[in-house]
């Protein structure tokens, strides 16, 4: 698991733990990550982890809260979108965010696969408000018969899937580590959104 740790860990133990846990939860899921693994990867002992962040559940909630705050900040930076060019800029900002922070899509993809199923309210607390916010933007620019919620979720599903798994090819997978592939994905999502929303 050493390859999951960042090259340089923060000196502050709490930040070190949170950063390490974020990477591990994104790679292995909540259910596949133990407190002992987090401690070992962070170069600390289990007691130190517990002292700074509590138990694994508390740590996971902290990680998901931070992921939500980062994602929400992207949307808030584009508040007031009321036209098609603004929607396209917001779409690009969302794709950029997911490519630059692949741990966030990875955390949600794990949840889609019933990871941390005993923590049931994260979707209603974090995902739902953002989807509703974006659906309101879509309703303002799309044709009247467009299902705004499904339009937003289609972009989320596509973007998270691309960031998490890339595109299979003969040599393995092409994904966010290839700028040309990101450009191709972005162009595809733009075409998809234009057609889905009836934009011209």
Please, could you describe this protein's structure?
With about 200 residues, the chain is mainly α. The chain folds into two domains: about 1-55, Orthogonal Bundle (Arc Repressor Mutant, subunit A), CATH 1.10.10.60; about 60-195, Orthogonal Bundle (Tetracycline Repressor, domain 2), CATH 1.10.357. It is built from nine helices and two strands; from the N terminus they run H-H-H-H-H-H-H-H-E-E-H. It has a two-stranded antiparallel sheet with strand order 1-2. Strand 1 (about 165-170) and strand 2 (about 170-175) form a beta hairpin. Helix 1 packs across helix 6 (about 105-110). It is globular, with a radius of gyration of 18 Å. The N and C termini lie far apart (about 50 Å). The mean pLDDT is about 90. It holds the Pfam family TetR_N. One of its GO terms (molecular function) is DNA-binding transcription factor activity. This is TetR family transcriptional regulator. Keywords: DNA-binding, Transcription, Transcription regulation.
Descriptors:
transcription cis-regulatory region binding, Arc Repressor Mutant, subunit A, Tetracycline Repressor, domain 2, 68% helix, 3% strand, globular, 2 strands, 200 residues, mainly alpha, 9 helices, single chain, two-stranded antiparallel sheet
How many distinct domains? Answer: 2
Sketch the topology as an H/E string, one letter per element. Answer: HHHHHHHHEEH
Q: In CATH's first tier, which class of the largest domain applies? A: Mainly Alpha
Uncertain stretches of 5 or more adjacent residues: none
- Helical fraction: 55-70%
Taking the sheet with the most strands, its summary is: 2 strands, antiparallel
Q: Please state the second-level CATH architecture of the largest domain.
A: Orthogonal Bundle
Arrangement of strands in the largest sheet: 1-2
What's the overall geometry?
Answer: globular
Number of helices in the DSSP assignment: 9
Which structural class matches the secondary elements? mainly alpha
Work out the number of β strands. 2
CATH topology label of the largest domain: Tetracycline Repressor, domain 2
Integer average pLDDT? 92
Name the beta content range: under 5%
Taking Cα atoms only, what radius of gyration do you get, to the nearest Å? 18 Å
Distance between the termini: 48 Å
């Amino acid at each position: 698991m050493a390859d999951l740790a960042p090259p340089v860990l923060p000196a502050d133990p709490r930040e070190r733990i949170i950063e390490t846990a974020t990477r591990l939860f994104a790679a292995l899921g909540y259910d596949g990550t133990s407190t002992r693994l987090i401690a070992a990867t962070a170069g600390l002992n289990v007691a130190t982890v517990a002292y700074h962040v509590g138990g694994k559940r508390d740590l996971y909630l902290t990680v998901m809260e931070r992921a939500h705050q980062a994602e929400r900040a992207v949307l808030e930076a584009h508040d007031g979108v009321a036209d098609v060019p603004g929607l396209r800029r917001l779409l690009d900002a969302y794709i950029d965010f997911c490519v630059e922070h692949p741990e966030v899509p990875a955390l949600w993809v794990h949840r889609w696969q019933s990871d941390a199923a005993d923590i049931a309210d994260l979707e209603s607390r974090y995902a739902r408000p953002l989807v509703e916010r974006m659906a309101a933007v879509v309703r303002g620019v799309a044709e009247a018969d467009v299902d705004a919620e499904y339009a937003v979720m289609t972009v989320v599903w596509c973007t998270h899937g691309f960031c998490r798994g890339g595109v299979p090819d003969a040599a393995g997978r092409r994904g966010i580590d290839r700028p040309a592939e990101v450009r191709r994905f972005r162009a595809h999502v733009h075409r998809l959104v234009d057609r889905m929303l009836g934009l011209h």
